Amino acid sequence: MNLSVISALRSLESLDLGECSDFPTNFGEEILVNLKKLEKLRLEKGQGNCHTFEILDAVKQMPQLEQLELVNFDIKTGFDTALGGCSNIRKLLIIPTYISQSATTNHMVLGGVLRLQSTLSHFVWGVTLELLRVTELFVDQCEDPDKKEKKDKKPAGNGDSIPVLKPVPLITDKDDTIPPAHDPPQVEILPLPNLQKLLLQSLPTTRVKILKIPFHATWRQSITDTVN
Fold first, then answer.
1. Distance from CA of residue 57 to its chain's centroid?
2. pTM, full prediction
3. Which residues pair with 126 in a beta bridge?
4. Region Disordered: what ranges (predicted)?
5. Using only C-alpha atoms, what is the Rg of the chain?
6. CA 30, 33, 71 angle in degrees (round to 5)?
7. Strands, DSSP E only, in 38-194?
8. Distances from the Cα of 18 to the Cαs of 44, 70, 118, 149, 155, in angstroms?
9. Tens digit of pLDDT per residue, the chain (228 long)?
10. Percent helix, strand, coil in the chain (nearest 5)?
């Protein structure tokens, strides 16, 4: 795949690209950063060996770029710090893949977004229905059998929770640092209403939306559709 032609489009203001797993290592530093007038960037399917950190390093060097959408991206350890450096981004959509290590993924997304608390105006977090179902099954399997009767009476919608590595990233007025995850890892099951509340408290000037969607519909989501 020859992407070098893109770097010549110096007046480009909006760019959508898919199959980001196939991009070369130098896509960020030699191609993306040349798009000085780019305002909106949407990237899809950044999985496997995708050079996500190199891309984010380029993003933070693009002062005109204010809208970033990452759809079906693997979120790896270190993503929080890399995303936190992109203080130029005002509108952000993230839909992780949730194929494995979902608790780590959510910890990284939350930690990264909180680092943008002073600059982010819009944030959309896409959570797949498949992740919600798997999390509910995990909770059911770990539950004390003696509580089965109580479990059977749980209200509808109680399964809307996601796993997050402890400690759950949180910024308070007294402490603006985000602690690292526990070692060995421990998982917190965080209901989506609690996640929404946490985000609204930590990002008081940001419009926040948690989007529950099936995986097959992730490709059709955009910031424009969800917050405008």
1. 16
2. 0.87
3. 211
4. 144-167
5. 18
6. 100
7. 40-46, 67-73, 91-96, 122-128, 161-165, 187-191
8. 4, 10, 30, 47, 40
9. 678 899 999 999 999 999 999 999 999 999 999 999 999 999 999 999 999 999 999 999 999 999 999 999 999 999 999 999 999 999 999 999 998 889 999 999 999 999 999 999 999 999 999 999 999 988 888 765 555 555 554 544 467 999 999 888 875 444 455 666 666 668 999 999 999 999 999 999 999 999 999 999 999 999 987 665
10. 40, 20, 40
SS3 98: coil
Tokens of 37: 């007038």
Residues in a beta bridge with 133: none
Nearest to 166 by CA among 148, 139, 196, 187: 187
**What is the full DSSP assignment across 105-150?**
HHHHHHHHHHTTTTT-SEEEEEEEHHHHHHHHHHHHHHS-GGGHHH
